[in-house]
Amino acid sequence: QLAVLLSLAARLGDREGGLVAGAILLLSFIWAENLVLGNTFSLAGLFLSLAAWSFGAIEKPGRRVLATLLFGALAAGCRLSMLPFPFLLATSVVWKERRLAFAAWTALAAAGSLALVYGPFFLADAPNTLFWNLTFHLSTALERRGLVPVWEALLVCPAALLVIPLGLAGAMRTRADSSD
């Protein structure tokens, strides 16, 4: 996972930023705990890293979106909470491309990538797939404690609060630059 992130940083020309990101990841005690316990966080993190690498390294928008969504769907197959990340990245490409046909293709790619990951399990046992991949996760996170886990996550990683406004600002600037 760190190798993928450092490769992405080198690809984007920000090796120091990659080292800082790697150090933050290594110094996150909660993340380190989940990595060494051997639960699904480590594999989901690897797939998310590969989705981020695909987003940053692949030049052609269609291939970029497809790879990002496929790796993101694999990450969501490990941890449902990982689902928004690849869709946000894909949406940013759709925003930049500004073509209805590309947006429709992206929606089909998203549905197809989720079907590819979850489809065989639904065919084998739909009720258990729904329970273990949706109902269980939602009930353990939301019904028991409400929004407390979200608040705790933001306290552990306050930099997450900067992601949305900085991402929106970057998207607006990119869109304004491309319209000139």
Topology summary:
Blueprint: H1 2-11, H2 15-27, H3 29-36, H4 40-57, H5 61-78, H6 84-97, H7 100-143, H8 148-156, H9 160-179
Helix pairs in contact: 1-2, 1-4, 4-5, 4-6, 5-6, 5-7, 6-7
What general outline do the C-alpha atoms trace?
Answer: globular
Give the termini separation. Answer: 38 Å
Number of helices: 9
Q: Uncertain segments of ≥5 residues (pLDDT<50)?
A: none
The helix-strand sequence is HHHHHHHHH
Task: Give the class from helix and strand content and strand pairing.
Answer: mainly alpha
The value of Rg in angstroms is 17 Å
The largest sheet, given as strand count, sense and whether it forms a barrel, is: none
Percent of residues in helices:
over 70%
Number of strands: 0
Strand content: under 5%
Structure characteristics:
180 residues, mainly alpha, 9 helices, globular
Structure description:
It contains 9 helices and no strands. With 180 residues, the chain is mainly α. Helix 1 (2-11) runs antiparallel to helix 2 (15-27), helix 1 runs parallel beside helix 4 and helix 4 (40-57) runs parallel beside helix 6. The chain is globular, with a radius of gyration of 17 Å.
Task: Give a short summary of the structure.
With 180 residues, this protein is mostly helical.
